[in-house]
Design a protein that fits this description.
heterodimer, A: about 375 residues, Fumarate Reductase Iron-sulfur Protein, Chain B, domain 2, Rossmann fold, 3 domains, four-stranded parallel beta sheet, three-stranded parallel beta sheet, 18 helices, globular, B: about 160 residues, alpha/beta, 4 strands, about 40% helix
């Protein structure tokens, strides 16, 4: 697609260059030469994609689009110009490119993934179930990031426990693949399409009517991005966070009160991308006191990294700033609902940055914490 | 073309293209400069015949081989990957092969999750004096990968 067509498609012609987007943008604050406003301006003036490496700093967290009064889809513009940019200035892969290569490996049709070792005996899964749990990449991350956190597999385990408590025994597919979220937002349409087709094929063969995802990235990708490639889906996609929020609200799920003070970090995919703000708060306030950070809900700060690219001391400073904000609320834990937010914050805490006070704020996954408040037995 | 380094040109002359006819399976072997590569050299000097499926990539130390490099080999169409280094205690850089061992263990776990048989990635210690062991390792690895069949890359 031509750069000026991209502007038309995402109503970027309505931009009045007020600069609210750049003011709100975490990437612009992290440093580097990134500004949503000047990208639009550059394309309008020259008709070309800016040759700017800092375009990979964008987390596509949607803060710019959220704050824009004229409905410009900045994050979509960034995504659409990335394929062009990656030809001349590819992104800097972090972690040796391993997460991205695992994504590529799982896109090979001949390979049948086998990600079920995490299922423990106390978890009730049922192969004839009408509901499927989409596990995503968390088992991979458990291996890659075990040196940071040893409890990542507790997230899918807790998800099954919560579903069990709601009377659902989910099906877990052995051969689901990576959802393709990172490929989509890094502009690799070919890889994304391959993964989307393989996953939809596998899910449709499993004959389930609803797919539940605990990872906000899997949820938004399956729900909003897969139809762009494969058309209407033959199943419903639901967010586990939303489901437990509704169940708590309607009395279908009871969580044992703990009385502790918690603060909630909105993952961008769950919040601004999917509009799920109230349900996670309902879950947390049903058993604890929720203390809001200044930047929360629609204005929630991003976790600082996306798609495993362009991690730097500056993004870590941003993350430590967010952790400090969480500590200032007086809460004893910061809760998030996204495995990636969890990994990024834990990484920032383990990093030895000189001159900056290290944060000891514990970060926990919402599903793990909620499952630990379930009545035993 | 003239700006291409000589070594790269030689590579192109010496190595057949990676096609079906050139003999499946495609194997990538990362050999450390001080032990395994010298071992491969010795195998050659001794005229020890071994399977021709190998693409040797010389690295200064088996500890140089990152998980990303190994995964990249699989993604680019290798059916098997070998990491060959010095025996424990013999590493030219003291502990490089220990890192290699840790990484290969981690990758075995990742490959298992992704549905790739972990035995497609082999870690073996070969000293500069073990030309015969090099030949035997290659022969048995190629036979093993043949038995496992194609990885069906990119299909």
């Amino acid at each position: 697609m031509r750069p000026d067509e991209i502007l038309d498609l995402h109503s970027a012609r309505k931009c009045v260059e007020c600069g609210r987007c750049t003011y709100a943008c975490p990437a612009a604050q992290i440093g580097g030469d990134f500004s949503p406003r000047s990208i639009i301006e550059h394309i309008e003036n020259t008709g070309e994609v800016p040759r700017n490496k800092d375009l990979w700093l964008c987390m596509t967290c949607m803060q710019c689009t959220e704050i824009c009064q004229f409905g410009v889809g900045f994050h979509e513009v960034v995504r659409e110009i990335r394929p062009e940019l990656s030809k001349v200035l590819p992104p800097e892969e972090n972690h040796g490119g391993v997460p991205e290569l695992m994504e590529r490996l799982s896109a090979m049709r001949g390979i049948r993934p086998n990600k079920q070792q995490w299922i423990l005996e106390d978890l009730r899964v049922d192969d004839s179930s009408d509901t499927m749990l989409f596990v995503g990449c968390t088992p991979y991350y458990d291996v890659i990031f075990r040196y940071l956190r040893q409890d990542l597999l507790e997230i899918p385990r807790s998800s099954v426990r919560l579903l069990n408590a709601m009377g659902i025994e989910p099906k877990v597919l052995a051969d689901e693949r990576c959802c393709g979220h990172d490929a989509y937002w890094l502009g690799d349409a070919e890889l994304f399409e391959k993964l989307a087709r393989l996953n939809v094929e596998a899910i449709e063969k499993a004959k389930v009517s609803q797919v539940v995802a605990f990872c906000p990235e899997c949820y938004t990708t399956l729900k909003y991005r897969y139809p762009e490639v494969v058309g209407k889906l033959g199943f419903e996609v639901r967010s586990l966070t939303q489901m437990i929020g509704e169940a708590v609200d309607e009395g279908g799920l009871w969580l044992d009160p703990s009385g502790e003070d918690l603060t909630y970090h909105d993952p961008c995919r769950l919040g601004r991308h999917a509009g799920i703000y109230s349900e996670p708060r309902k879950v947390l306030s049903s058993f604890a006191n929720l203390k809001e950070m200044p930047r929360s809900a629609q204005l929630g700060a991003c976790c600082g990294n996306s798609s495993w690219v362009n991690c730097s001391p500056m993004t870590r400073l941003w993350q430590l700033g967010r952790l400090r904000e969480a500590a200032e609320t007086g809460a004893s834990k910061m809760i998030t609902a996204c495995p990636k937010c969890l990994i990024h914050f834990t990484c920032a805490q383990s990093e030895n940055i000189q001159l900056i006070e290290r944060s000891k704020m514990p970060v926990t996954d919402l599903h793990v914490l909620a499952a630990s408040r379930l009545k035993k037995g | 073309m003239d700006s291409e380094p000589l070594a790269q040109k030689l590579d192109q002359v010496q190595q057949p293209p990676l096609t079906e006819e050139a003999g499946q399976p495609n194997i990538v072997a990362f050999c450390c400069n001080w032990c395994a590569y010298a071992g491969a050299d010795l195998a050659g000097v001794n005229r020890r015949q071994y399977a021709p499926n190998l693409r040797i990539i010389r690295v200064m130390c088996s500890g140089r081989v990152t998980p990303g490099m190994i995964l990249q080999a699989f993604v680019s169409g290798a059916e098997g990957v070998m990491v060959l280094g010095c025996h424990p205690g013999d590493c030219h850089y003291r502990v490089g092969n220990k890192y290699a061992e840790q990484r290969v263990q981690q990758l075995h776990e990742l490959l298992e999750l992704a549905g790739v048989d972990p035995s497609r990635l082999l870690l073996q210690w070969i000293s500069a004096a073990e030309g015969e062991l090099f030949g035997r390792t290659v022969d048995s690895f190629v036979a093993h990968i043949r038995k496992l069949g194609r990885l069906e890359a990119g299909k």
